[in-house]
Amino acid sequence: MLAPVEIDQQPFSRTAMRWIVGVVLVSFTLSMVLLVFTDPPTTAGSWEPNTSSYSAIGHKGLVELLKKLDRPVLVSGYQSGKRAAEAGLLVLSEPDSGRRDDIIQLMDEGARILVILPKWYAESDADNPDWVTESRLAYAGWIREILNALSLPSDLIRYAGPAADLEWRHDDITTEPTIASPQLLDPSDVHPIMVCDEGVLLGWLSWNDDRVFVLSDPDILSNHGLGRGDNAVLAMEIFDHLCAPDDVIVFDETLHGFGGEPGFWREMLTFPLVLVLAHALLTTLVLVWAGMSRFGAPRKPPPGILAGKESLIDNTAELVRFGGHSGHSLGRYFVAALRDVSGSLHAPEGLERAALINWLRALGKARGRVRDLGALEKAVETVAREGRRRKGQEHRVVKAARDIHAWREEILHGSGSDQRSH
User: How far is Cα 201 from Cα 219, in angstroms, rounded to an integer?
Assistant: First the structure.
């Protein structure tokens, strides 16, 4: 028997393929726009005193101010000391006191360093984690841990009054600070750059033949302090004093727990590059899926045409079915059955088809047959009229052919009960 030929074995319809291509193009275009026009985040946001923090004690404002004034700024999440040692200033903004060994390692890498000492202990807002609800002076022992890492025996001096009450002495810095209660260092332990009678606000110390600068009070540079008085001007004068205008100011974030060594896969898993990676993976999956026309073992090829009458009859029947001529063949079979039965029962000659059917129906009733020849004729006409339009047409053709054969056997041999049992 001939097997039907499967023309289209693709896994997607044309409509589905159009939708897939359209969605992929729109999504890929959007990811490219985000990749071009979006700055990738360098650190995670938080309320703590780091360069991505918008809280009162954060340093996001300082970084943005330096950028607006065209100062080269780099927020570093790896090898900060080596990167700053080439041509820049390394800023350790309020480092964690528990990272003493990391602080020493950064200082040993040969870069000019500005250490901004911490001053406040704050708690984050439960409703907005990037803000702080309240703050109080940090425990002095925490700050001493940082001073010990710098090999400074100096103790903290916390002046109770405002900085405006103090008489300041400084080198080439002309602006005075606006601080409610300055946090200072003992002038005997550090070389002063900006000092008053109570202590040192900005000074330097020697470290392996290099200078390490120390700013004792972060309120000049923090988000809440930059907008007070002339602190923003003072902040820029401090950086002008510590480094040249073309030097890169490197803000270290490793001491705040951010960053990591970059790599191809690390970068590909960050936004928005992760969108490109996702598209590449999805495209690969779709291509693999589109190339698969089956699951499991391959189908066996259809058998060739065998010799013999039975094979010829089977193939002819299959061709008739495939061409949609089953109804026409059923009608021809019905006419052949009528001729065979009328000849065997010696029906009157010259009868038209309608008259012949009526004669055979009457004969069937006389012999006690149940199957109605008129109903068979209507079934054959219905199948021939509907063609292949109606679902299950092949099943009705086979049933009608069996009924014709059963009627023939009933009226000729009286075996209707046996035939109806099948």
Answer: 11
265-312 per-position pLDDT tens digit: 555 566 666 777 777 777 777 777 666 655 556 666 666 656 666 665
How does pLDDT run across 325-374, given as a tens digit for each residue? 677 777 788 888 888 888 888 888 888 888 888 888 888 787 776 577 77
pLDDT higher than threshold 80 for residue 314: no
Q: Are both 226 and 315 inside the same structural domain?
A: no
> Into how many domains does the chain fold?
2
As a whole number of angstroms, the distance between CA 26 and CA 35 comes to 14
Summarised one tens digit per residue, pLDDT across range 41-73 is 444 457 788 888 888 888 999 999 999 999 999
Q: Is residue 160 part of a domain?
A: yes
In a domain, 289, yes or no: no
CA distance 258 to 278: 25
Rounded-to-integer distance, Cα 161 and Cα 158, Å: 9
Higher pLDDT, 206 or 159: 159
pLDDT at 3 over 50: no
| Distance, CA of 346 to chain centre | 83
155-176 pLDDT per residue, tens: 789 999 999 999 999 878 889 9
How far from 63 is each of 51, 58, 67, 272, 401, CA to CA, in Å? 7, 10, 6, 23, 90
Same domain, 225 and 361: no
Residue 32 lies in a domain: no
Structure tokens, 266: 């690390």
3-class state of residue 151 by DSSP: coil
Residue 106 confidence (pLDDT): 86
- pLDDT for the residue 401: 81
Q: Are 218 and 12 within 8 A, CB to CB?
A: no
Say if CB 143 and CB 171 are below 8 A apart.
no
Same domain, 246 and 321: no
Backbone angles phi, psi at 11, to 5 degrees: -75, -15
Q: Are strands 112-116 and 88-93 parallel, antiparallel or unpaired?
A: parallel
CA 327 to chain centre: 56
Residue 41 lies in a domain: no
Structural domain harbouring 335:
309-420
Contact 384, 328 (CB under 8 A): yes
For residues 242 and 339, membership in a common domain is answered with no
d(CA 189, CA 176): 22
Judge if 141 and 249 occupy the same domain: yes
